Amino acid sequence: MANLQVTSSSSTKPLIHAQNPARFMIECKLGAKASEFGGATFVHPTTRKLSHACKSQAIQAVLASDKETHASSATNGSGLRGKLNKVVLAYSGGLDTSVIVPWLRENYGCEVVCFTADVGQGISELEGLEAKAKASGACQLVVKDLTEEFVKDYVYPCLRAGAVYERKYLLGTSMARPVIAKAMVDVAKEVGADAVAHGCTGKGNDQVRFELTFFSLNPDLQVVAPWREWDITGREDAIEYAKKHNVPVPVTKKSIYSRDRNLWHLSHEGDILEDPANEPKKDMYMMSVDPEDAPDKPEYIEIGIVSGIPVSINGKELSPASLLTELNDIGGRHGIGRIDMVENRLVGMKSRGVYETPGGTILAAACRELESLTLDREAIQFKDSMALKYAELVYAGRWFDPLRESMDAFMENITKTTTGSVMLKLYKGSVIVASRKSPYSLYREDISSFESGQIYDQADAAGFIKLYGLPMRVRAMLEKEKGNN
């Protein structure tokens, strides 16, 4: 797993220096494969120089200034609501999380370590975070690249299980939250934090997903959820609070939609979507073209699968994140993977969301079709029934629940022969199966053929039908006897 991290340590000496470390971080992320990086990098709190711990080539960026050191010393003593030592905050750099930083310091008298996870939301969302975190009063910024871990350890198990929530939702946000929360627990241990915090509202599913992960991995951590505690009720309140505490308000154009993006999907909620009667606007979509505008010529792609896990596109083996990235591009230009649904949130209310999952839709179709060759009827039916519960557990934030982990062991075992390839035709929003093949295929042409063969004698079907239909015949005989009486 690649590991982009900015952290401070008074005992660490710089190993490598960069003139422009922020630019260096961005250029390296764009130009290198994630599997080439790992390890940890530390930046001394009173310098702006990049040090590079080089065993697995982790790429790190700037942090630290005298202003940060001063900010940290200003948190001595208890806050308005109590005392915490250090809090790791899930941080995006937007208005809400920028305001949470001073709110935590004011109410809990603590240092705040901002944490940002790269789960494939795009490099533009990672730019400038260090400056924003410092301006808000954070003592430290930690950024980790979780893209490979996200796809390999979270997306692929759900894909193998065939997990789909309420017939449509491919669990994009649901899968991302536990990998982020797990990383926060790891960071809390690294920096000596006694608490973690998130910016989820009290009406959504994400608060549950974050906190169940915290509970599962470190029950000793205190959890702070400002949206359930503070008096801020909306954007204007947040702006006023920011001005009062000298926190620069992020000068970004506010989207009319609430969006969540990662390497698996992009979700859209809010504005006109709050009325299920409204059709989504054409310019809302960002990952996929309108199927009407997609190419007039179909594109064929072959997905290679080993034991239920995708490994290649058109014969080229790729890492999990690279494979999904390429399929997002391919599927997006053909308008693949648009889903509009009304779902039941875990907290009880219904919500309407529109999802773009181009690569994921292609992979789900490929895995499902290959299973039609490699699994028998009973196995498919039982696996499908378990997939419903699997999806429900993931949606509800129970990723680290022993039940999901046990079900995953079943999914791994039942799909061990799901190996082969599926050829798909992509055309104007649709995914059409062109061919499927597997060395473990249960399909036998010599048996399925209408021509008589040695393995299957058609005359045997008569006895089978009589036995299989015996309960129906007995019931009909009984009803006939009663009718005659």
Automatic annotation (TrEMBL):
State the source organism's domain of life.
Eukaryota
Name its pathway: Amino-acid biosynthesis; L-arginine biosynthesis; L-arginine from L-ornithine and carbamoyl phosphate: step 2/3
Xref: PROSITE patterns: ARGININOSUCCIN_SYN_1, ARGININOSUCCIN_SYN_2
Which positions fall inside the Arginosuccinate synthase C-terminal domain?
Answer: 257-474
List the Gene Ontology MF annotations in alphabetical order: argininosuccinate synthase activity; ATP binding
The EC class name is ligase
Q: What is this protein called?
A: argininosuccinate synthase
Q: Name the source organism.
A: Helianthus annuus
